[in-house]
Design goal:
heterodimer, A: 403 residues, alpha+beta, four-stranded antiparallel beta sheet, 13 helices, 4 strands, B: 327 residues, mainly alpha, two-stranded antiparallel ribbon, 15 helices, 2 strands, 78% helix, globular
């Protein structure tokens, strides 16, 4: 898996405004990589480091697109109840393995409808295989709309709400935009609710990793010596053992009778306990290279306390690198959660995460008749790719002075 | 060099002790022990459970000893090749695991080879023909390869095989050879099935290596010495292979160390999906059934062998790259 993500780059040359005063010379082309500054005019002389980082990041088109994608995914995670057209736990045997309904604008007689609609589903016996198959019922047309009134759900478990972002105008119509599962639950709604768990596991897990990584990496890099040796050996230990068997063992030991919430935190903590090593290495590398910088020496001579040197002078100069490597390590947490839940060792139903949803596709026969059971996997791939692109963009932008 | 090797060997010993401790903790974590589970099975099948018998069983397995003595006894037994007893299979663990672990490593190692060869060729191509159509194609491929979890890829391949070719691409042997003893014919049969797990395992690693190889080689190609050599009239091929490729090759050896744990990870999961007769499915079942000695032995041996593999790759790297040796 994508573990080795962030090799510390060589320290940036200590350039300040001096660099820019040379580059504005009429005859000299601005250096290629700094061309992102071209259209900023005089603002570059006063721009903060974050401003420069942002300008540079903006140039990375895939990263920008992915950033939007992530924003959408997190909005979906926050407002799942509103965005999902159906309750993810409502089941209807009648619609077990119902195929995705196409959303149409033109009906079978060729008439165009401004309002999109779906056909109803009816089951028929396939005369060749003698199996029951779903066919669209062209008699029944269910128009769709935005902000429709559907079944009431409890928003964040706090208050009742019956508006949904979209859905059939008739609240009793069958609506399966991505098909139904084994029990006739709406796959789309389940994926939407799964977003909440899967995307937050990544964030929460990485925050714990971050705390551990900064603590141990900081000690290791700032103080060095015997602590550095010990911590580096521990990290090497973690990196040289195969994590999946270990995770499997540890999460199998989490008591099965724990409540979903407790289970969620147990799994997240487990994932981050093993995942902090990469971050610790990045932090250590940064501390090691910054320790030798002149401004640190100056702060020391100026009589700053150790804490002040670390938090006022050193940390701000590598925050952007930390954010980049954080972003790059979120996917591995998401993937690990998905894999564990898929195997039945992570989160368990009734909790809905993408991994839990994929458990259903372990049955090959079910997948053969209902390939849309693999759809949660697509969600995983999209989320992981988006994080990777944003992380890549951030890593390139983290050092806006680099050529 | 000798000093470096001795140093690494010492470190490895410490790591192995740590691995054994972690595995032992995994045995101890679930509530109750071996005998409680045994009693539960007896009770569920209707047999009467006699407390005296349970106590004698506890004594027999040494479960009445304090925890550190149990750990020492467990490791002592392991050093003598006794990994405890599998409760579900009713067999000593050592009879169950070796063939499966062998297959796990065979698959992981072949996947590593495939990864290296493909990663090298494509990486060099992508760097030399930067921004060409092929480069974009492989870049897209490698990003997708990094994003797809391997078990999902396995599922998709299974589904495609089932749906469009009407065959089951899972498994490692045809039905005729499943229980047969090892023979040349069985080996050939295995090779015929091996490509599916190799593709699945190789994609992620290859994608990563392409990225690294491309980036490293690009860095190298921009250096002044390359320009100098070109100015002196060295042919492009010689120019490429003489130094830049050699330097960019380093990560191949150094990544072997961390690629191995990753491959074992992947092999464990995809074996469950593709029902390969490797460590994965047995480990999963052992964990689900709380057959802890079997599970811990798997974790212990897989980790220990990975640690040894990492050591070998470290020594290889030090041998190839003097900068590491003299650090």
């Amino acid at each position: 898996m994508a573990q080795e993500i962030n090799k510390p780059r060589p320290a940036s040359p200590p350039v300040g405004n001096a660099l820019f005063s040379t580059t504005v010379d009429e005859d000299i082309e601005p250096p290629l990589a700094l061309s992102y500054l071209e259209d900023q005019g005089d603002k570059i002389y006063t721009a903060t480091q974050w401003q420069l980082t942002w300008w540079r990041f903006r140039r990375h088109k895939m990263a920008m697109a992915s950033l939007w994608l992530l924003a959408i995914l997190y909005l979906v995670a926050i407002f799942s109840e509103f965005i999902a057209p159906a309750d993810p736990n409502i089941y209807d045997e009648k619609y077990a393995y119902a195929p995705p309904q196409g959303i149409h604008f033109i009906d079978s007689s060729g008439t165009f409808h401004l309002r999109p609609f779906v056909y109803g589903l009816k089951s028929e016996r396939d005369m060749e295989t003698m199996r029951m198959v779903f066919v669209p019922d062209e008699e029944a047309m269910y128009p769709l709309g935005f902000f429709t009134v559907g079944k009431p759900t409890k928003f964040w478990g706090l208050f009742e709400m019956d508006r949904h972002l979209f859905g059939p105008l008739d609240p009793n119509a069958a609506f399966f935009p991505l098909g139904g599962d084994r029990l006739g639950r709406d796959m789309f709604s389940r994926i939407v609710y799964g977003t909440r768990i899967s995307m937050s596991v990544g964030l929460v897990g990485i925050l714990i990793s971050l705390a551990l990584g900064i603590f141990f990496g900081g000690i290791s890099g700032y103080y060095g010596g015997i602590w550095d040796t010990i911590i580096q050996r521990v990290i090497e230990f973690f990196r040289s053992i195969p994590t999946i068997p270990l995770w499997m063992g540890l999460s199998a030991a989490v008591p099965k009778e724990w409540s979903p919430l407790r289970m969620y935190f147990a799994i997240t903590v487990l994932l981050s306990l093993i995942g902090w090593t990469g971050l610790a290495r990045v932090v250590r590398g940064r501390f090691l290279s910054l320790r030798e910088e002149d401004f640190v020496l100056a702060a020391k001579l100026g009589g700053s306390s150790e804490m002040r040197i670390i938090f006022r002078h050193m940390v701000p100069s590598f925050t952007s690198h930390i954010i980049a490597s954080l972003t790059l390590s979120i996917p591995s947490v998401i993937l690990a959660e998905t894999a564990l839940s898929f195997l039945g060792l992570g989160l368990r139903p009734p909790v809905i995460s993408w991994g839990v949803l994929l458990q259903e596709s372990q049955n090959l026969r079910a997948v053969a008749t209902a390939p849309w059971l693999l759809m949660p996997g697509l969600a995983v791939v999209i989320a992981v790719l988006a994080f990777n692109f944003v992380g890549d963009g951030l890593r390139d932008a983290a050092d806006p002075y680099a050529l | 060099m000798l000093q470096y090797i001795i140093q690494r060997l010492l470190l490895m010993t410490i790591t192995l002790v740590a691995v054994s401790l972690v595995s032992f903790v995994i045995i101890e974590l679930p509530p109750g022990d071996y005998v409680t589970a045994y009693a539960a099975t007896l009770a569920s099948s209707g047999d009467s459970v006699d407390q005296a018998r349970l106590d004698s069983l506890r004594k027999q397995f040494g479960l009445d000893l304090p925890i550190y003595q149990r750990y020492l006894k467990w490791t002592w037994d392991i050093l003598h090749g006794d990994f405890g007893y599998s409760f579900v299979w009713n067999k000593p663990v050592s009879e169950l695991i070796w063939e499966r672990i062998g297959l796990t490593f065979a698959i992981s190692f072949s996947a590593l080879m495939v990864t290296w060869i493909l990663g090298f060729l494509i990486g060099v191509y992508s760097a030399v023909r930067q921004y060409s159509f092929g480069d974009y194609l492989f870049t897209t491929f490698s990003f997708i390869g990094l994003g797809i979890p391997d078990f999902l890829l396995a599922l998709v391949l299974l589904w495609i095989g089932f749906r469009y070719f009407d065959t089951n691409v899972g498994g490692l042997f045809s039905r005729d050879y499943q229980t047969a003893a090892w023979s040349f014919a069985k080996f050939v049969d295995m090779l015929k099935h091996l490509w599916v797990p190799l593709i699945v395992l190789g994609v992620g690693g290859t994608a990563g290596l392409i990225r690294i190889m491309r980036a490293n080689l690009l860095d190298e190609l921009r250096k002044p010495y390359v320009e100098t050599a070109r100015a002196k009239g060295v042919s492009e091929r010689r120019l490429l292979l003489r130094y830049p490729v050699r330097i960019a090759l380093n990560p191949f050896i150094s990544t072997a160390g961390w690629a191995l744990p990753g491959l074992i990870n992947g092999a464990t999961i995809i074996s469950v999906v593709l029902s390969l007769p490797t460590a994965g499915p047995l480990l999963l079942n052992a964990l689900l059934a709380q057959d802890m000695y079997l599970a811990a032995s798997f974790i212990l041996i897989l980790s220990a062998l990975t640690v040894i593999g990492t050591l070998i790759s470290d020594i290889l790297l030090a041998w190839l790259d003097p900068r590491i040796r003299y650090q």
